[in-house]
Amino acid sequence: MAKKTSAKKKASARKKASAKKKTSAKKKASARKKTSAKKKAAAKKAAPRLTATDLARKQRDISISEFFAKNRHLLGFDNPSKALLTTVKEGVDNSLDACEEASIVPDIRVEIAQREETRFVIAIEDNGPGIVRAQVPKIFGRLLYGSKFHRLRQSRGQQGIGISAAGMYGLLTTGKPVRITTRTGKKKAAHRFELIIDTQKNEPRVSVDDVVEWSPQHGTRVEIELEGNYRGGQHSVDAYIRQISLANPHAQITYVPPKAEEHGDEHVFPRVSKELPPQTAEIKPHPYGVELGVLMQMLRDTKARNVRTCLQGDFARVSSRTAKEICERAKVPDTRRPREITRDEADRIHKSIQQTRIMNPATDCIAPIGEELIENALRAEVEADYFASVTRRPAVYRGNPFLVEVGLAYGGSMSAEQPITLYRYANRVPLQYQQGACAITKAVIGTDWKSYQFQQPRGALPVGPALLMVHIASVWVPFTSESKEAIAHYPEIVKEIRLGLQECGRQVATHIRKRRREADEAKKRAYIERYIPQVAVGLEKILGLSEKQRDAVVDNLTDVLERSRKL
Asked: What digits encode the pLDDT tens for the residues 434-446?
């Protein structure tokens, strides 16, 4: 009993000690919380309250170069391999545009030299008209500087960002300036520049401006050193060069990949045609594509003296009669000064425009590749059994004319178990990335390819031995981002693409059915040819024919079979 009592006392003592420790710990934790709360309160009291003036001092302008330097992924420079491809793409686009505007058949050379494991020098040289000396720093050293943004006509470049952004990326990753050599004529001196972009001011800084000896009579050579990654595959520079040669059959492109001197693998993509695309004309904005805010700005900036002459002179396809009809429907006097038009009156004019029947814009501002050239280019690039090409009539979205072309190569050495190869183009430029986000892909997937003898998994590209190229030409291609990798899903554009695909699909379906009929006939003929000798032997035994008569029966039956095949 004494032992049990002692044990109970010890257990009770331990419980009391434990309770005291817990109470002490709680008190310490509570004290720490109170101390922390006091410190925070003191800190809040000590921190000065910012005024509107203090906040105003922190505001400053942001240069467009500075913005894109921090957000270069928006321009297609979000990883080394893509940066390499984007730089080549922007340089080639500029060269092709320059040659075509000067009516020169393009001869372009693309060189990629590897300096280190992840460092490359890209050089693009063309035989274009060259660049005036005073313009070189602005073109290559200032973002959003160019001649194409304000013109409504088909061109590869639109924003004036591409090549200057490529030079900025090279400067950010290697610290090396952009090197430009240009010459404007046989009797003119060649100039060599080295420059960088001041990203805070969006201004060029020229470090070298020399007169040099250069053998070409005219043209431009641009060299950019950058951090990159060279690789093969669908999104490689090699694939891009092959694709752009398809859409530009009038250009000869020489491609020198890294270490070409060691392996001797310089590639020449010869031109299929010596004829340049037709020159495109600049058009005025169409009324259907102008939004209310833009219309108000145009009314403020116009040099016309009244609303009627403003509508007639500043817009496409608006005659004097149509302008008067718009004003009457909007209940606005056609003699009113454009600058005196109020917001409500402008709104009525804008709604009246949408209710008035106006002709579609002129289509001489776009230049399609053409069915014949698409087919010839496919034949030169792809080994196939059948080729089809379609050029649709021009259509309009938001007042902007556009045109869709489709080319298809079927059979040959292409795999019948894999999805078809899809090449997407906008104004003759291949689109390499964001295939799933593009209106072209949406139209291809949304087409019922089973009706055209292709297999097609649900929600995926059709399966079959085919290469499909889709090209959209427009005065303003609605890209989904500044990197120009996918086309926006405008219903008018998706509809036109689908109609072009269906027209091309009907042609290839006719070919596939014909081939299947021929295969079935050949199979049946082979059976008949196999059994003709057996029939002759049977007739010999039944009718008692001689060997000579039996052979004659075989020849007659074979002749009948051959004549039926020709019929």
From this structure: 888 899 999 999 9
